[in-house]
Amino acid sequence: METAVNNPSALKGAEFLVKNTSPDAVFIPEDFSEEQVMIKDMAEQFIDKEVKPVLDRIDKLEEGLMPSLLDKAGEQGLLGAAFPEELGGLGKDFITATLINEALGAGHSFSVAMAAHTGIGSLPILYFGTEEQKQKYIPKLASGEMKGAYALTEPNSGSDALSAKTTAKLSDDGKFYLINGQKAWITNSGFADVFTVFAKIDGEKFTAFIVDKDTPGFTLGAEEHKMGIKGSSTRQIYFQDAKVPAENVLGEIGKGHLIAFNILNIGRLKLCAAALGGAKDCIDISVQYAATREQFKQPIANFGAIKHKLAEMAIRTWSCESALYRTAQLIDQKEKELLESGKAFNEALLGAAEEYAVECAMLKVNGSEVLDFVVDEGVQIHGGNGFSDEYVISKAYRDSRINRIFEGTNEINRLLTLDMTLKRAMKGKIDLMKPAMEVMNELMSIPDFGNDDEGPFAKEQKAIAQFKKAILMTAGAAAQKLMMQLETEQEILMNIADMAIETFVAESALLRLMKLNATKGEPSSGLLADIVRVYITDAADKINKSGKDAINGFAEGDEQRMMLLGLKRFTKVEPFNTKDARRRIADKMIESQKYIF
């Protein structure tokens, strides 16, 4: 392993696998400025005062209600916070924008409408539009005067977006493109004023267009009846010789994939942020319920089984948060670095998000699955009441499920995690080969059982370093053995991605703890240390299982036995009493009646 880096921008995308990071180099939530805390408080108050009291009305798709809430959010500057000031926004940095997404994540269907508007509904124009297009649309999108939507998915093209059948043909006079086709699952479609629509010019050149709702030949289908996020407007949209002005082509003709995929990188991180906000809210609800619900003449919060659930909800949420803001800072710093080098505003953020596309994919998977875990355990804590619509946890359970499908399914994001990492290595952006060879050589040598542990977190640091060796060993051997065939072995790819996700989150949590220890005197035996040690202990078992499944999927004989022994060595951690640690974590939340970390 290489030495620690003190400049966060020196850590390239996916390079966490082969480089260590100094704790003082990471951004953690405890580093938020006073202004950022105020903005977060404002966003949380907006959800509490404006959204939560009308959740049932939102779910009934009361006409005009969702647009009016977006108008109110726009009045408070929440819609255009990350847009440039010269285009009607507040010009806030990427970390602040991420924080707003988290704070608004407890708004159920409103959170979806809000994220779709400020993200995929607006960013394609902001980043790829001409100056005229930006001046025409962005100030109104920033204020909420116009609402945005994004039309990529079709009935027969979801993850395989480039197989879209919607077509565009230039009119004989060259003034319009005639668009024909159909789009499905379009969020905000019932009230959106402007849509980013993807179509193939002459059936071949995949291109993006800005389409206004009053475009002739553009029509909407009925509202979809969904399992969750019922208050989010979701319709199919139809184009029958829809006349779109030629000047509404967005970006370059035939380069629509650049818009579609680059916007998704940012969207994945923001989805993680919103899921995080939802998870914290559901923990509050579950803790309060467990503290007041009595069975066997005492609150159910007194029982170990319930404490285990509450603590695990908090452990996964805190660790996910650590990884989220670590990545948000990396993107923020890369964006500033690119701006200083002379890149335009749009090129800077898109370039930064592309640099950390691997981390964004991992966050999307982790955030959505943490929220799913939290709401599922929340329902369980509520027992039969959790199955009743009278309790908001049942709404949270239904609303959560879409997040594993949005912004590319979690399966796609797992496959992308390793695919993008290997491509970065092949392009020479990161060196995986040398560290992987070093790990394989280590397997052939006699294990070092020396005790060189120093410092309060030496054992945890060693565990993370060993987890990375497990990934390099497994991924390196799989790539060498299967070569071009590896891309068809999706199960193996997903196994290795799971190893990487667990390691990235565990390392992020440890770095946050170490920074708090160094800067704020956080005790190495306190509740946050309990959170990190439980996470690392459990991650070791998960990484071992995923590694074992991967190795058994491509290796056999002596090679298989050697690698399984190496995996066992690399996922061995010090024994830790996770039961007592979880009880300490749960007791503190029960005492405070909320998520306090």
UniProtKB/TrEMBL annotation:
What UniProt keywords apply to this chain's record, in alphabetical order?
FAD, Flavoprotein, Oxidoreductase
Cofactors named for this entry: FAD
Q: Which reaction does it catalyse?
A: a 2,3-saturated acyl-CoA + A = a 2,3-dehydroacyl-CoA + AH2
- List, for all copies, the residue spans of the domain called Acyl-CoA dehydrogenase-like C-terminal: 467-569
The residue ranges of the Acyl-CoA dehydrogenase/oxidase N-terminal domain are: 33-145
Domain of life from the UniProt record: Bacteria
Q: Where is the Acyl-CoA dehydrogenase/oxidase C-terminal domain?
A: 254-416
Q: Which GO terms describe its molecular function?
A: acyl-CoA dehydrogenase activity; flavin adenine dinucleotide binding
The Acyl-CoA oxidase/dehydrogenase middle domain, residue ranges: 149-241
- SUPFAM superfamilies in the record, alphabetically? Acyl-CoA dehydrogenase C-terminal domain-like, Acyl-CoA dehydrogenase NM domain-like
**PANTHER family per the record?**
ACYL-COA DEHYDROGENASE, ISOVALERYL-COA DEHYDROGENASE, MITOCHONDRIAL-RELATED
Give the family, as the similarity comment puts it. Belongs to the acyl-CoA dehydrogenase family.
Name the chain's protein.
Answer: Acyl-CoA dehydrogenase
Species name for this entry?
Chitinophaga caeni
